[in-house]
Amino acid sequence: MSLPRLRQRQPLCDGTGYRGASIAVLPFEKFEHRFPPGIFCRWSRRRYGITGLARINWLSVIARNLTFTYKGKATDINQVREELGVRYVLKGSIRRSNNRVRIVAQLIEAQSGVHLWAERYDRLLDDIFAVQDQIAMSVIGAIEPNLRKAEIERVRRKEA
User: CATH classification of 21-155, choosing from 3.40.50.10610, 3.60.10.10, 2.115.10.20, 3.30.530.20?
Assistant: First the structure.
C-alpha cells in the first residue's frame, strides 16, 4: 500500500516575500462579548485560512500562528504585507444580536489597499456548525475567482 503523494509546490519565500499568490487570513474582529471566547476568531482562521484556501494549489496561505499576532489590534494592511510578505489579506468582523450573526469578510490587495471583494452574511445561529460551513464555502467560492483574476491582471501589468 502506497501513501498518497502531496502536491509539490515551489519554495514559498525568496527572501523578499512569497513567490506567487499569497494570503494572510487575519483574526476576524469581534464586536460583541456574548460569543464563546474566540469561537469565530479561531474559526475564521481555521475554516477560511487552512481548510479552504489551502486547497487552492496556486495560493500560499500564511500559518495561523503568524496572523494571530494581529488579533485585537488595529491592523494596517501595509504593515501586514511588509511583515508577512503577502499579496492579499482576508479580514472581517463579526457581530451578534440575540440569535443572529452578521459576518463581513473583505479581500484586500495588500500593496495597493484596494478591496477586491467584500460580502456581508446574515444568519440565524440555530446551528453554529452549519453557519460556519455555509459561510466558509461561500467565501472560498467567491475569493478564488477574484484572486485568480487579480493575479492574471498583475502578470499582464508586469509584461507590459
Answer: 3.40.50.10610
